[in-house]
Amino acid sequence: MKKIIASVFMIVSLAVWGLEIDAPKAPPSIPLLAIEDININFYQNVSTEVVPKIIRKKGELYIIPVNVAATLYNKGVDIRLLGITSRGLLSFLSKDIEKIVDLEGKKLYIGGQGSSPDVVMKNILEKKNISLDISYRSSGEIAKLAMAGKIDNLVLPEPLATMVLSKNKNFKRVTELKDLWKGKEIPQVGIFVMGKVYDENPIEVDKIIEKYKKALERKNEVKLLERAIEEFSLKLSIGDLEESVRYMNLTLDTGCKKSVEHYLDALGIKLPGDEFYAW
Predict the structure, then answer these.
(1) Which among 33, 49, 78, 268 could bridge 195 via Cys, Cβ 3.0 to 4.6 Å?
(2) What is the pTM of this model?
(3) Span 147-166, average pLDDT
(4) Three-class SS of the chain
């Protein structure tokens, strides 16, 4: 009886207040700002703010790294992928290198040993037989060093990559890492739903997905970018943020199981079962 009452309460709650989504307090969440009837909880740290919530089954929808969700799924959490929200956020910047093969013997700065940028870049370097010296710092620290002109070669996600290019004109964007990746898509981030929420409210979830797709068409609107700068406390001009959005490769891809599996396999993560994919 208690379970029936709880389920009825959830359905009524969703009908009245709408679905709730946890999303990073960062530019890749810009499309959400164009959706009016959705409750957004912005987070700074997925490990401390979102993962515990998912484990306790307290949330509904999440925009989180694909590798984080796959790891939780492999631990028994019923979380499902609705779609990939970015085809790649990483770029390789340099002062004097024209092609990535010219990195041979150079020093490269990457944010976080064992992180997604590290594993992706190492995978690319290995396939091209490039040997070099890798130095690890946080992405924020790397951006500061680059803007001060203290380093020459680096890998950064958006919007930090565009921020560096804006502040230090000696750097150029040599390539987006996705262009060197199999299928030219690095499915780093996705939108996920708790299994129970999807099973009990599939129509409501599908409506949010459709609204997200339409919101993507507005991602470059000036008013939306202005709101994003304020909401996310960005130190970027409208022009720089618009440029950054170009390289965020924002999307909503479904049916991309093969690219997800290739990415997870490169990260050394056990491939989740078919139930991980909501489509």
Answers:
(1) 78
(2) 0.89
(3) 97
(4) CHHHHHHHHHHHHHHHHCCEEEEECCHHHHHHHHCCCCEEEEECCHHHHHHHHHHCCCCCEEEEEHHHHHHHHHCCCCEEEEEEEECCCEEEEECCCCCHHHHCCCEEEEECCCCHHHHHHHHHHHHCCCCCEEEEECHHHHHHHHHCCCCCEEEEECCHHHHHHHHCCCCEEEEEHHHHCHHHCCCCEEEEEEHHHHHHCHHHHHHHHHHHHHHHCCCCCHHHHHHHHHHCCCCCCHHHHHHHHHCCCEEEECCCHHHHHHHHHHCCCCCCCHHHECC
